[in-house]
Amino acid sequence: MSVIEVRDLNRTFDGKKVLRGLNFSVEKGEVFGFLGPNGAGKTTTLRILLGLLRASSGEALVFGASLANQDRLRRRVGVLLENNGIYDRLSARENLDYYARLYAVEEPRAQVEEMLEFAGLTERADDLVGTFSAGMKRKLGLARAIIHDPELLLLDEPTSGLDPEAQVLVRDLILRLSGQEAMTVFMNSHHLAEVERVCSKVAILHHGSIQAFDTVEHLRAGSGMPRLSLSLADPEKTATALDLLSQLPSVSRTEREGNRILVTLTRGSPASPILTRLIQEDIGVEEATKVSRSLEEIYLGVVQEAEGSA
Question: Using CA atoms, how far apart are residues 65 and 303, in angstroms rounded to an integer?
Answer without folding.
Answer: 32
